[in-house]
Amino acid sequence: MQSNCNKNLLNLEGVKLKSVQHTLDGIIIKIETNPKPQICPCCGAGTSKIHDYRWQKIKDLPFQLSNAYLLLRKRRYVCSCGKRFYEKYSFIAKYQQRTTRLSFKIVELLRSTNSIKYVASQTNVSMNTVIRILDTLSYDKPHIPQCISIDEFKGNAGGCKEKMYS
Ligand SMILES: [Zn+2]
């Protein structure tokens, strides 16, 4: 019964669902991935040696109208050069505490509303987070007034940079 059904439910490549817990704060979904050979970011050598694990809580898209969190068993590898590093995951951006698909959802909502408060409430993030994401969207366009770049972005899902510079 396990895997296939659970895999489809989460719709995240290479992720195994371990457990689901309903709490007052939302749904907590424990996940893990299979170990795979890594390239050391320091010396470039390959390694498969696992150093340790730590749990990371990541905000995901709301699920069944509840806040949803992925609790990821994050794996750290060690290289023969001594470097320790965390595995990279395609579904979280570096240094982020949320899934990339949640960031995309925030961007999508920003296209249809001017209310940062509304977007924050719909996606379980702070208004500051929404503002930060909005800032990154217009970051590369210093020569274009803010209002124009936002309007431009609104009319153009996903490919805003290409459009701005084409
Ligand atoms: Zn190394």
From TrEMBL:
<feature type="domain" description="Transposase IS204/IS1001/IS1096/IS1165 zinc-finger">
    <location>
        <begin position="37"/>
        <end position="81"/>
    </location>
</feature>
<dbReference type="Pfam" id="PF14690">
    <property type="entry name" value="Zn_ribbon_ISL3"/>
</dbReference>
<protein>
    <recommendedName>
        <fullName>Transposase</fullName>
    </recommendedName>
</protein>
<dbReference type="Pfam" id="PF13542">
    <property type="entry name" value="HTH_Tnp_ISL3"/>
</dbReference>
<feature type="domain" description="Transposase IS204/IS1001/IS1096/IS1165 helix-turn-helix">
    <location>
        <begin position="87"/>
        <end position="136"/>
    </location>
</feature>
<dbReference type="InterPro" id="IPR047951">
    <property type="entry name" value="Transpos_ISL3"/>
</dbReference>
<dbReference type="InterPro" id="IPR029261">
    <property type="entry name" value="Transposase_Znf"/>
</dbReference>
<dbReference type="InterPro" id="IPR032877">
    <property type="entry name" value="Transposase_HTH"/>
</dbReference>
